[in-house]
Write a structure and sequence with these properties.
heterodimer; A: alpha+beta; globular; B: 295 residues; 2 domains; two-stranded antiparallel sheet; 10 helices; 1% strand; flat
Chain lengths: 198, 295
């Protein structure tokens, strides 16, 4: 079984937000409420003349030891066979314990207003028919069909790479094994599967 | 536009969670004290009234957990699916245990009611057993519900064992003062009650200092959260002054000054009620998290 993961190269991200748009269209995330499964933070630091501008795409880390899964009282948060951390919309209580536990701020509530708006926008094709806590799925349906996640396939600068972390010949495998790509907050012991090059 | 996203207020928990923590802790402490009073100096009405008060508070806590906080209250039926690990599951179990064991504990007190005399007599041999279960569940509630905030490392303002301990101590402090107001006592009993409140106030003071130390020397988010709390006049007035120092000074005066007053226990109850709620409310609302940006 592949150990899927993502590597995001912050050196080449231009902050175009194409990943956010692709994700929103693919997964019907509530962009109308400014809630995103993946978004690109625009960070400006320093003072003139020593300034810097950085783009940091954020996404669920699909941790191997997810804090969100431990605290979920209904086991609505679970890991799929591929190791993706997913939410069962039917059994989610909406207690938001997972939101508080996630150190990466990757979750949001798909609330009543969002469900109503989604129905208005997508009609019968709407995917989120119930209120629940929502997050990135690594586009599980696409990956099982042999495709890349929407954010990866749409990135114009190839800043996002997806693949088997255990495969030494894959782009992500090479970046991780060489130490070039690093996880965020490894000290928390969550073992993220999303790595950053910066 | 640049977004100063390094420090953000957590968006998961709002004011209903603080009400839930407060009423649940208060109810749990009352239940545990009802069991203790069963062995010492309990009057005919004391145990039933204390247990009923605890159950009313648990009902309020449960209402705030389910209807004011859950996005899908009907799905609360799934809340026990992860009882081995989830704090929310354990809170639900403890509330349930308090109801079942608490009612079975108090029923033998109603032997004088003809309709209940049969069941009361049948339960009398097991009263201590059910009382012990209810007391344990009550005692654990403030710890487990405090652990709900303290366990995840994502919000450093909450991530310390001092928090469940503080919730436990302040809950028992309030419950003692409340019982002192509800069932006025005098003489040695009054001194014992005041002494208990004094000892707990002293503990709460010490734990509060330890907590302050955690926020001062801990991660930047914890420091930022405490700064925000200390900038809130409501918190400053209600917890450190009214909820912490006032009970400490007054209970010390009651114990060491030999004062026995009818207004002291109600005054302590009001002060501890306001302080205890302000503590939980401001803690919940000022939880700070950061996205761990590399920049």
């Amino acid at each position: 079984m592949s150990r899927y993961g993502m590597v995001i190269d912050l050196r080449s991200c231009v902050g175009c937000q194409a990943c956010s748009a692709a994700c929103a269209l693919e997964n019907q995330t509530p962009y109308w409420s400014d809630k995103w499964r993946t978004k690109v933070m625009d960070i400006q630091k320093g003072e003139y003349p020593s300034t810097g501008r950085y783009f940091v795409p954020t996404i669920c880390m699909h941790c191997e030891e997810p804090a969100c899964m431990t605290v979920c009282p209904s086991k609505a948060t679970f890991k799929s066979d591929e190791g993706f951390v997913l939410v069962n919309y039917d059994t989610c209580l909406g207690c938001k314990a997972c939101m508080a536990a996630c150190p990466y701020g990757a979750r949001y509530v798909y609330d009543k207003k969002d469900v109503a708006q989604e129905k208005e926008v997508y009609g019968e094709a709407s995917q989120h028919k119930k209120v629940h806590v929502d997050k990135c799925t690594f586009c599980q349906d696409r990956v099982t069909r042999g495709l890349e996640p929407a954010c990866v396939s749409t990135c114009p600068t190839l800043s996002r790479q997806f693949g088997d972390l255990d495969d030494p010949t894959s782009t992500v495998g090479k970046a991780v094994s060489s130490g070039l790509a690093k996880p965020l907050r490894p000290d928390l012991g969550t073992k993220p599967r999303v790595y950053y090059i910066y | 536009m640049a977004q100063p996203m390094h420090v953000e207020r957590q968006e998961a928990y709002e004011w209903p969670v603080s009400v839930y923590l407060f009423f649940g802790g208060f109810g749990g402490a009352l239940m545990a004290l009802a069991f203790i009073f069963h062995f010492f100096a309990a009057t005919q009405t004391m145990i039933p009234l204390t247990v009923v008060s605890a159950l009313v508070l648990f009902a309020l806590a449960g209402a705030f957990l389910v209807f004011f906080d859950l996005e899908r209250p009907i799905n609360a039926i799934f809340s026990l699916n992860n009882f081995t690990k989830s704090g929310v599951s354990w809170d639900v179990i403890l509330i349930g245990l308090n109801y079942v064991a608490g009612i079975l504990f108090v029923l033998p007190q109603f032997a004088y009611v003809p309709a209940l005399s049969g069941i009361s007599q049948a339960l009398t041999p097991y009263q201590v057993f059910f009382g012990a279960i209810a007391a344990l569940a009550g005692f654990l509630f403030p710890i487990i519900s405090g652990g709900l905030l303290a366990a995840p490392a994502s919000i450093p303002l909450w991530h310390t064992p001092a928090l469940p301990l503080l919730f436990l101590i302040t809950s028992f402090e309030l419950a003692l003062a409340f019982l002192g107001s509800l069932f006025p006592v005098s003489g040695t009993l009054y001194t014992v009650l005041a002494g208990g409140i004094f000892a707990l106030s002293l503990l709460a003071f010490g734990i509060s200092l330890a907590y302050l130390e955690h926020t001062h020397n801990g991660p930047v988010e914890a420091t930022e959260g405490m700064h925000r709390m200390l900038k809130t006049p409501r918190f400053l007035l209600l917890y450190p002054l009214i909820g912490l120092l006032f009970p400490l000074v007054l209970s010390a005066y009651l114990v060491f000054g030999g004062l026995e007053s009818t207004w002291a226990m109600p005054a302590l109850t009001v002060a501890l009620f306001l302080g205890g709620f302000a503590l939980r409310n401001c803690l919940v609302l000022n939880g700070i998290e950061t996205y761990p940006w590399p920049y």
